[in-house]
Design goal:
The complex is a heterotrimer of chains A (591), B (99) and C (199). With 591 residues, chain A is mainly α. Chain A is built from 17 helices and two strands. Chain B has three helices and no strands. Chain C is built from seven helices and no strands. The longest helix of chain C has 31 residues. Classes of the chains: A mainly alpha (591), B mainly alpha (99), C mainly alpha (199).
């Protein structure tokens, strides 16, 4: 899986890379490249592979949830007696899948695709820069990510413990006393944190320093703003998780008790440790990262959607400045809402009141951005191409995700809902049909810049409509099962609880939708490879867009991006300007 | 930061002055710790001294005092989140129902 | 590397007044502040939640740690003097000051080694109690930073110094950035020393 991540970009790149001015060896050109475009594609393809892998893990889990205790058909024998005797999944295997599904999707799939992939490929082009500020650090960032990913994947086959089993949140003390996979999880996370730290520094410096002449901050495309704020979140929120990782490593390897309280009893045996630690400490340090991380997942998606909506409505974004200010406020607030994940911990009422207040406040800028995007559609002559369809679907999907989050942000309603499938439904609406749809939109939208060809619209529609339907088929029932009280951590899908009986059949709906969703990703995969050779050829401005990446000659542009650094004369979204010759005026066009 | 030699010469004087102050404060903080102050007082005194020393290093050795606005803003933002990170976990632990 | 060179690698950008590397190193230090911030938060949370908390002085060697504080502060001064020497175009003087900085780093690590080995002889390990756990974790992580900084400085003293012949300004910038990291390491110790040893 992982190795295909590095080899696939070459295939896609070989025939379009006609800029042979420098005679770089194959390795320097495609593998250890310092060109931000190549690195972006490396990131994107590797991340797509991880997304697919994480999806496979989830499909296995969905079997167990739909048909608890039944042998997995066809492939059940592949997992060995230790994990699935006779093809029937053991709870420990289910836990491995759950922990790794979360970890892989968040840290190895979406963030690397949204930030590493799109950020790397698009941001320097959009600001008119020849490359990132530190090209070699950029390369190092990708390779740290790659190593981190490999570490995570290998943990499945490293004896004795297999992969981590304590959830993507790795709550202590469970994770402190869990099997060896947890140690590999920490190692992998440290590599990923290093990667994102290097990336974040690079993004911030690039945005501040390498903007083309005339490109003031308020002329930046919204996508750049989103990446800029995201980079700050990564920069400042990740280090506490790194510290937490070090502390947990000490607990596991050196026998300390940072997260182990005194008098802890495990399986009827008192644990032989000094004690005096605090499990709540892990949750604080973890969520100090992981709440901003939620915005790391969503902000780049909003950026992509804003670009595509402005382009396909042929109108300026409604309330660009409001959106930017909302974005900054959102980024700032995301650092002081984290404990709304911790209402269940026995944290006191004063603090709970504080955090539910900040949580309600943070919903305001999110709504402001979403509303601006919706109003942007008003009165536009909309082009319904595939990127636009995905971008439009993002709006209601993210809306459902956001609105179902409100009861979770309030202490009193969170407590009954917190450990149920309601939460799973809520955040998957934000991340899966929300962010992932935006990412698909981005792939369809910037694919012509990377390859010189458009992806097939027909296959795009075969991808979009079933995906939209099936995504809802997976996650909508979860609100019902969750409200009925089905716990989200059970390996048997709640089969043993009498009160979930009336809703249990929804598990099968979800599962069949999930497997169907897998089926309808095939048009996308075919489209992705087929269009490299056979897609409709386009010139360098494939969508008649205003932003600078489309002004750069060639698809992809040569090493160094621009023949000369462009000068910017106008804002990012001058579409349908009255009196202009065309319905779009590129940012580097003088008048 | 100016490149003029005369200005730079002034720097050296500042560095030496800061160095002497830092040494002095190190000895003071050790000396204070041998006095049997109450825990709260000891913590306050030690942290004040450490903050002064830290500020001197940041302002003069790291030239933060004459640094560009951009960097000051970044560090200000970082310090805000740093304080949040220090304070809030401690508050939540001590804000228990029934206390 | 590319057809158009990356701007502002050496000279500052007019509107920010800074070059790329300078912003980069400060952003890195910002993340380091959060890293150590999390450890200090751990210390506060565990200490205020503990029923008994041992005094650092009962376990730890204050004279050695005081010496180490002085060593590190001295190294900070020699570091800034090394940068100053380059600014004044005195390369030999730079080598002496940077050499002293590296020696101080060795001295610091040697004293740390004495402290650690003495603790281990007495049977005091990270797992002994929470205080020692946080003591070892924080000082070890700080020690890693000292080693890292010393490695960068050693590179700039040795092979990296070739750059001085071709691009004085960029080399001076590199020494300045390495120095910023070094002062930060000193700054962390200034807080670690009273927090762990004296309180």
């Amino acid at each position: 899986m992982a190795s295909t991540g590095t080899t696939t970009p070459h295939a896609g790149h070989a025939d379009v890379h006609e800029h042979g001015a420098h005679d770089l060896s194959f390795w320097k050109k495609y593998v250890f490249s310092t060109d931000h475009k190549t690195i972006g594609i490396q990131y994107a393809v590797t991340a797509l592979c991880f997304l697919l892998f994480g999806f496979f893990l989830m499909m296995l889990m969905r079997w167990q949830l739909a048909f608890p205790g039944k042998a997995i058909p066809l492939i059940g024998g592949l997992f060995g007696e230790g994990r699935a005797p006779g093809g029937t999944m053991l709870p420990t295997f289910y836990n491995e899948l759950g922990a790794m599904h979360g970890t892989i999707m968040v840290f190895l799939g979406i963030v690397p695709l949204a930030v590493g992939g799109f950020g790397n490929f698009v941001l320097p082009l959009q600001i008119g820069a020849p490359d990132m500020a530190f090209p070699r650090i950029n390369m190092a960032s990708y390779w740290f990510f790659f190593l981190g990913g490999v570490t995570m994947l290998l943990s499945f086959i490293i004896p004795p413990g297999g992969a981590a089993q304590s959830g993507w949140t790795s709550y202590a003390p469970l994770s402190d006393i869990a099997g060896s996979g947890q140690t590999w999880w920490i190692m992998g996370m440290v590599l990923l944190i290093t990667s994102s730290l290097l990336g974040a520094i690079n993004f911030i410096v690039t945005t501040i320093q390498l903007r083309a002449p005339g490109l003031s901050f308020f002329r930046l495309p919204f996508f750049c703003w989103a990446q800029f704020v995201t980079a700050f979140l990564l920069l400042l929120a990740f280090p506490p998780l790194e510290a937490a990782g070090v502390l947990q490593l000490m607990d596991r390897v050196a026998g300390t008790s940072f997260f182990l309280p005194s008098g802890l009893v495990v399986s009827g045996q008192a644990l032989q440790v000094s004690g005096g630690g605090n499990p709540l400490l892990w949750q604080h340090l973890f969520w100090f990262l992981a709440h901003p991380e939620v915005y790391v997942l969503i902000l780049p998606a909003m950026g992509i959607v804003a670009e595509i909506i402005a382009n396909n409505t042929r109108k300026p974004l409604f309330g660009y400045r409001t959106m930017v200010y909302s974005l900054i406020f959102l980024g700032f607030m995301s650092f002081i809402v984290w404990a709304h994940h911790m209402f269940m911990t026995g944290m006191g009422t004063t603090m709970a009141a504080f955090f539910q207040t900040t949580t309600m406040i943070i919903s305001i800028p999110s709504v402001a951005i979403l509303t601006s995007l919706i109003i942007s559609l008003w009165g536009g002559s909309i082009r319904f191409n595939t990127p636009m369809l995905f971008a439009l679907a993002f709006l209601p999907m993210f809306g459902i995700g956001g609105l179902t989050g409100l009861p979770l942000g309030l202490n009193i309603t969170d407590i009954p809902l917190h450990d149920t499938y309601y939460v799973i439904g809520h955040f998957h609406y934000v991340v899966a049909p929300g962010t992932i749809f935006a990412l698909f939109a981005g792939i369809y939208y910037w694919y012509p810049k990377a390859t010189g060809r458009k992806m097939s619209e027909t296959l795009g529609r075969w991808h979009f409509w079933p995906s939209l339907l099936l995504m809802n088929g997976i996650f909508m029932p979860m609100f019902l099962t969750g409200l009925a009280g089905m716990s989200r951590r059970l390996a048997d899908g709640g089969a043993t609880y009498a009160f979930t009986k009336p809703v249990l059949h929804y598990n099968q709906w979800s599962s069949f939708s999930a497997w169907g969703l897998a089926l309808f990703q095939i048009p996308f995969i075919i489209n992705f490879f087929w269009s490299m050779k056979n897609g409709e050829k386009v010139d360098s401005n494939a969508w008649q867009s205003t932003t600078l990446e489309w002004s750069a000659a060639g698809s992809p542009p040569g090493h160094g991006n621009f023949k000369t650094i462009p000068t910017v004369y106008r804002g990012a979204y001058e579409y349908s300007v009255p009196g202009a010759a065309k319905d779009f005026t590129p940012q580097d066009q003088r008048s | 930061m100016s490149d003029h030699a005369a200005d730079l010469k002034k720097h050296v004087r500042a560095y030496i002055l800061v160095f002497v102050t830092l040494m002095f404060l190190t000895l003071v903080t050790v000396a204070v710790s041998t006095q049997h102050l109450e825990v709260h007082q000891a913590i306050i005194v030690a942290l004040i001294i450490a903050t002064v020393k830290g500020s001197l290093v940041a302002c003069y050795f790291m030239h933060l005092i004459s640094e560009k606005k951009l960097i000051l803003w970044v560090m200000f933002l970082t310090v805000v989140f740093f304080l949040v990170l220090l304070a809030v976990p401690a508050f939540t632990v001590h804000d228990r129902i029934g206390r | 590397m590319s057809d158009i060179p990356i701007p502002y690698t050496v000279a500052p950008r007019p509107d920010t007044g800074l070059n790329n590397g300078k912003i980069g190193i400060w952003l890195f230090l910002a993340s380091e502040v959060m890293l150590f911030g999390a450890l200090f938060a751990t210390y506060i949370l565990l200490r205020t939640g503990a029923t008994v908390w041992p005094h650092g002085r009962e376990f730890l060697n204050i004279p050695l740690a005081t010496t180490n504080t002085i060593v590190l502060i001295t190294s900070s001064v020699t570091m800034v003097m090394a940068w100053y020497s380059l600014k004044m175009d005195r390369f030999t003087q730079f080598r002496i000051y940077l050499g002293l900085t590296i020696l101080c780093a060795f001295g610091f690590m040697f004293i740390k080694y004495l402290e650690y080995s003495h603790k281990f002889e007495l049977g005091l390990y990270p797992k002994t109690n929470t205080f020692l756990a946080i003591y070892f974790t924080m000082t070890a992580l700080h020690g890693l930073h000292v080693v890292g900084g010393a490695c960068v400085n050693a590179y700039l003293w040795g092979p990296g110094a070739k750059l001085w012949k071709t691009d004085k300004e960029q080399f001076t910038n590199r020494v300045e950035n390495s120095g910023l990291f070094w002062h930060f390491v000193d700054l962390v110790w200034i807080f670690l020393f009273p927090v762990l040893y004296l309180l």
